Amino acid sequence: MRIVVLTGAGISAESGLATFRDARGLWEGHRPEDVATPEAFAHDRALVQRFYDARRASLARVRPNAAHEALVELEQHLGDDFLLVTQNVDDLHERAGSRRVLHMHGSLRRVRCEVCEHRFEYDGSLEHEPACPECDRAALRPDIVWFGEYPHGMDDIHRALSEVDVFAAIGTSGVVYPAAGFVDYAHASGAHTFELNLEPTGGGFHTTFAGPATEVVPRWVSHLLSRD
């Protein structure tokens, strides 16, 4: 049984991690176009660095939850037949123990150099523009996929979806592309598709489990493993 799981902000929110977008569409008081585009970075580099420094620091205040842990159990059972694709830029999956994780929107704890493209794990501040350890240029930026940039790992994701038996979307809005289209790729492969969300999105899934991720994900994993 080959399984691809897509996770979104809903799974991290139950660990207490803010989704950063409020009812007015603002991220921590900022418009997304002011902190999450290449143009914003070029216009006010210091503001963008401070914004992501704060988000990176917030990771120390949260812990993985039961939904993250259940997905680790599923991965341990399936091995290479499991792929976890996340839209989240936090590291809660890894801290729970997941290893086969693809961060399609990048990671807060990774940075890259705009000059030499060197990528590396980083847990400090970028506000004071530290030098790249590879080329010694002060050209580091968060390794985050901003609006207008192409998500990471799309070839690997499409390859996995072309061979998948079960696809599940957990805690996603179902409206952000290209991730919102993954269910269609899974259907084309003949997979059974599951949605695990606080409320159904109407995204055309075969089966929907509504409720908090910390409740529905462990039940779903137990159900899958009992069938195997």
Structure description:
Strand 2, helix 6 (92-96) and strand 3 form a beta-alpha-beta unit. The strands form 2 sheets. A 6-stranded parallel beta sheet has the order 3-2-1-7-8-9, sandwiched between helices. A 3-stranded antiparallel beta sheet has the order 5-4-6. Helix 5 (66-78) packs parallel to helix 9 (213-227). It is built from 9 helices and 9 strands. The mean pLDDT is 93. The chain has helices at 9-13, 32-35, 38-43, 45-58, 66-78, 92-96, 154-161, 182-188, 213-227; strands spanning 3-7, 82-86, 101-103, 106-113, 119-121, 140-144, 166-170, 192-197, 207-210.
Helix content: 25-40%
- The best one-word shape is elongated
The count of helical stretches stands at 9
What profile does the largest beta sheet have?
6 strands, parallel
The sequence of SSEs as H and E is: EHHHHHEHEEEEHEHEEH
The CA-CA distance between the termini, in Å, is: 8 Å
Q: On the 0-100 scale, what is the average pLDDT?
A: 93
Q: What would you report as the Rg, rounded to the nearest angstrom?
A: 18 Å
Order of neighbouring strands in the sheet with most strands: 3-2-1-7-8-9
Provide the structure class: alpha/beta
Percentage of residues in strands: 15-25%
Total E-strand runs: 9
Q: Give start-end ranges of low-pLDDT stretches.
A: none
